[in-house]
Design brief:
This protein is 93% helix and 0% strand. It has three helices and no strands. Helix 1 packs antiparallel against helix 2.
């Protein structure tokens, strides 16, 4: 019973972390797109100093690195989640196979018990 609670807690925490990182990634990806667009506009405007345009490109580049970091962490968590899911599916399959063997062997077990009782 305790194992089920720990398993559910672990799944909930893992899923929450994945959801949070996904939301963060979506938000900063949209911001990145806006920063890239702003940097492009700076490059088109002739009155903007070159230094300002370079700073806009650097800001977009910095946010791009953050996006890469979030993406790497999200991939790690997704890989871990998929491994856990695979283990659960395998465990469930083994459990179902064991249950079907026990159900199909009940008559043989009943015969074995009867033989033991007869021998006593």
């Amino acid at each position: 019973m305790i194992d089920k609670h720990i398993e559910k807690f672990y799944d909930d925490v893992l899923c929450k972390d994945i959801k949070i990182l996904t939301e963060i990634l979506a938000t900063i990806s949209n911001s990145y797109r806006l920063l890239v667009g702003a940097a492009e506009e700076f490059n088109r405007i002739s009155l903007v100093h070159r230094h300002d345009a370079e700073e806009a490109i650097d800001r977009a580049d910095d946010l791009g690195e953050i996006i890469d970091d979030v993406d790497r962490e999200l991939k790690k968590l997704m890989k871990l989640y998929l491994q856990e899911l695979s283990c659960k599916i395998e465990y469930q399959g083994l459990y179902n196979n064991k249950a079907s063997v026990i159900i199909s062997s009940k008559p043989a077990a009943a015969e074995f018990i009867e033989e033991l009782e007869d021998n006593e």
